[in-house]
Amino acid sequence: MGEGTVTALGHAGLRVDGDGVRVLADPWLSPGGAFLGAWFPFPDNSHLLTAETLDVDVVVVSHEHLDHLDLDLIAGLPATVPVVVPRYPSTIMQRRLRAIGRTRIVVLDAWERYRLNDRDWLTVIPEQCPMSHDSAVLLKIGARSVLHTNDARISLAQARRAMTEAGGQLDVMGVQMSGASWHPVRYEYDEVERERISTIKRVGKFKAVTRLIRQVQPRLVMPYAGPPCFLDDDLFELNSGLQPGGIFPDQGEALAWLADRIPDQRGVCLLPGDRIRLDDLEVVRDPHWNGFALDAGPEQRRQYLKEYAARRRPAIDAAWAANPVSRPGLAHRFKAHLESLGTLSEYFLARIGMTLRFDVSGPYGGVWDAHIGPDRVVVDLDGGTGHADYTLTMDGRWLDGVVSGRTRWEELLLSLRFTARRQPDRYNDYLVGLLKHADRAALRAVERFEAARDPEETTTIVVGGKQLQVSRYCPHAGEDLAETGVVVNGVLRCLGHNFEFDLTDGTCLNARCDPLLVTPAPYVEEAV
């Protein structure tokens, strides 16, 4: 690898080289994929899994999702290579790294610099709300800077500080423009409704990133980290490019959007192995991709994915083998697991207050109702008769992995190996937060963050020619609505996570969330 370069490794993975500096950032190269053999990098990046690529001084990983935290790859690196991670309320990343034998783990606080040598450094920029444990990584290599946003929704203020820390205009900015969501693709909607919701989420993500780029104005921007591809027969039709639309746009679609909205912003689409020279920002293409095109069309995409799936068949089979049909006693293990979650946070339970139904197929399955909140979790193993606010349908083999400790809840949800239904169809962030964290310290951090927000601070918006004062910060995750709020047909949408609020009374329309404060702006008489 040459000096002063950024090499795309596929998905969100980068290798950054400088004068005596070799860094892997969020590499995902192992052939086993992620999330129960459901996700694989697109396109196939296996040609980069070489000794040369992995000959590095340090690895930095932004968060625990296994398409970023490649445990198999990291386990094979020399013991002398440190792994740098952000400090989160939960220590799950450190525990997973220690479990694979890593002893050199460096935990960074936000904006704390890790020195790569006498002049070069990197730092981490966690999302402001601790409900999501995601971080951007800022690298300073010689006179050049790379902002590697990963999956983090950093604010404009954080981006401006990154520019200040780096000493001016950012040189390269990697942006994530493809969501990692099981909604709406695994929900029991008809195709029209599924695509309507997908479009809202896809465009919302694009708009949020566009706003950030427009303010930062890096010398070069590169979309990445999407889409993953789904090579298991059960999930194959979820792949992007097989039909128009969908929730997982590819890098080419993202770049086209940016070119249309910010025509003066230089952008580039990199395939695995393509490199950017940091001094002049020229791109050196990997000859591996001669004859390959992202926009070749749905039939060519389908054929490519079929051939890729054939190569990954052993990994997919291994994922199924590692999760055999459920064992006797699944129901009682499930009950004990769910009820133990109810001891972690009264704050979360009070904000969930719903019945979550599990319709579990396969040996030892059944229909089980978890009544969550207001102060505990009670599981009824003879469920299925009353109303359920939320229903998850899945094979018992995948659920057994969670309640037995092989798999985390969010890994199961991201695997897309289930279907879901909500009645009413409203998102509850606290339910997802309880399941994905399942950690007392992480849940307490969310409670402290939300208690510290000032609900009285407002910002002014104009709707239909009238000024309104609304809460400055989104009641969900604290996003600054002066930066991330857009108004469409009398509804304020926070582009951070697509929460929508009625501007007549502040009610959240599509999720369980505290309302916005909405009042007419005070009239100020103009000076004569």
TrEMBL record:
It comes from the Bacteria. Residues 440-528 form the Rieske domain. Keywords: 2Fe-2S, Iron, Iron-sulfur, Metal-binding. Signal peptide: none annotated. Gene3D superfamilies: Ribonuclease Z/Hydroxyacylglutathione hydrolase-like, Rieske [2Fe-2S] iron-sulphur domain. SUPFAM superfamilies: ISP domain, Metallo-hydrolase/oxidoreductase. Coiled coil: none annotated. It comes from Kribbella aluminosa. InterPro entries: RibonucZ/Hydroxyglut_hydro, Rieske_2Fe-2S, Rieske_2Fe-2S_sf, UPF0173_UPF0282_UlaG_hydrolase. The keyword Hydrolase does not apply. This is UDP-MurNAc hydroxylase. Pfam families: Lactamase_B_3 (PF13483), Rieske (PF00355).
